[in-house]
Amino acid sequence: MHILLALWVSLAPLIVPRQELAVAAVGGHVYAIGGLTSSVALDSVERYDVRTNSWSFVASMPETVHHPAAVALGDSIYVIGGYRSIAFTPVADVYRYDVALDSWSRVADLPSARGALAAVAIDGKIYAVGGAPTFNDLLVYDPAIDQWMLLAPMPTGREHLAAVAVDGKLYVAGGRTSRNSSAFEMYDPATNRWTSLSPLPTARGGIAAAVLDNHIYVFGGEGNPASSTGVFAENESYDLATGTWASEPRMKRRDMESAQRRSDH
Fold first, then answer.
1. Percent of the chain with pLDDT over 90
2. End-to-end alpha-carbon separation of the chain, Å?
3. Separation of CA 200 from chain center
4. Residue 224 within any structural domain of the chain
5. CATH code for the domain of 48
6. Rounded mean pLDDT of 127-146?
7. 190: helix, strand or coil
8. Exposed/middle/buried for 183, CB within 10 Å: 0-12, 13-18, 19+?
9. Which CA distances in Å does 100 have to 96, 141, 241?
């Protein structure tokens, strides 16, 4: 039986309110990277200390970026793609943040520009999937040789998706193109093949996902016609042992979208 404390707890807020940011965790700290205010793309990076429940600034990115992907690998964070400006110009830039040195460096670009993608680390490599305008692409980056390689395309192309890694496999949930998607698919690097799984109960894009106790959780999202804010409070979990979805306690509050939401891609 899957038993968790059904409770949301409010923690210290970000120093700078932002949306469409990237997030990664290293060594007891959570990093909030780039994103948007109501009218400005950001280069600032904030670090959350789990022990003290407090935020502080670290070194800013070399460029402003929103809608990138971020993934932790060892003691580094890689920030991948995204959009450069309010005009939603996609970029192929990839930056590496050295946590110990608090410094940024440029690594190999993506093969082509894209934003609103997702990324995970598996066995020392980074897998970047989806995004606009590429949608179906799956790429792998090997930091040992600083090189990207194209892999088998994702069956259901989409952007604003979420991805997690479990037991050496990549799981991709939700997202959207012209409308929200409920697609839930798994990629096995050992075979370079995709498998379609039981769909996400609530189709949505602009989501977040995490893994805990052999369950994949999918949080929030955009494009809710039943809400005046246009966002979802849904929290749904996938049991990796049984292959089934369940509803979990809804998010505590529905974050209000800024005017930027009207021009979101």
1. 88
2. 40
3. 16
4. yes
5. 2.120.10.60
6. 97
7. coil
8. buried
9. 12, 22, 37
Residues 102 and 18 in one domain: yes
Q: Is 100 inside any structural domain? A: yes
Q: Which two tokens stand for residue 224?
A: 């809710």
What integer is the mean pLDDT of 43-70? 98
Which three-class secondary structure state does DSSP give residue 56? strand
Write down which residue in 83, 115, 147 finishes a domain: 115
Q: Which residues contact 130 (CB under 8 A, 6 or more apart)?
A: 116, 117, 118, 136, 137, 154, 157, 158, 159, 161, 163, 172, 175
Token readout for 76 is: 């580094």
User: How far apart are the C-alpha atoms of 43 and 65, rounded to whole Å?
Assistant: 6
User: Tens digit of pLDDT for each residue in 101-131?
Assistant: 999 999 999 999 999 999 999 999 999 999 9
What total number of domains does the chain contain?
2
Q: Is the pTM of this model over 0.85?
A: yes
**Residue 101 structural domain:** 12-115
Sheet holding 125-129, edge to edge: 118-122, 125-129, 138-142, 147-150
Cα–Cα distance, 225 to 223 (Å, whole number): 6
Query: Whole-angstrom Cα distance, residue 111 to residue 118?
Result: 15
Measured distance CA(173)–CA(162) in Å, rounded: 5
Peptide bond into 133 cis (omega under 30): yes
Residue 140 phi/psi, 5° resolution?
-125, 140
